[in-house]
Amino acid sequence: MAGATILRAMGWGRVSLALAGRAIVNPLLAADLLRVAWRFRRRRWYARPPFLPVPDRAYVEWRMHTAYGSHDAVPPIEDVIRYARWLRRQA
Q: Are 28 and 36 in contact (CB under 8 A)?
């Protein structure tokens, strides 16, 4: 079980770094990704440590399960970018 958690963390770390790299060279994508991050923030994040607008783990697991069939799934970078761009078009 611990091994799966480590692999999942590595996967999310890689996705995060790749998205950060893409955002550096594309400011519009950076804004889109910030919008996604803000939408995924935990409710009342300001009232609980670590006092950062990070997503709720249970919510992210549910989203991964509904999208990819496993709560341990890590989305492909292109899926995250596609979702971020879709959100911009919906605004």
A: no
Q: How far is CA 3 from CA 8, 9, 14, 64, in A?
A: 9, 10, 17, 19
Count the alpha carbons within 13 Å of 71 in the hemisphere toward its beta carbon: 7
How long is the chain?
91
CA distances from residue 57 to 29, 42, 89 in whole angstroms, order as listed: 24, 9, 27
Q: What is the pLDDT of residues 6-62, one digit of tens each?
A: 445 568 899 999 999 999 999 999 999 999 999 999 999 999 998 999 999 999 999
How is residue 21 written in tokens? Answer: 């790299």
pTM for the whole thing?
Answer: 0.81
| Burial class of residue 44 in the structure, from the number of CB atoms within 10 Å of its CB (0-12 exposed, 13-18 middle, 19+ buried) | exposed
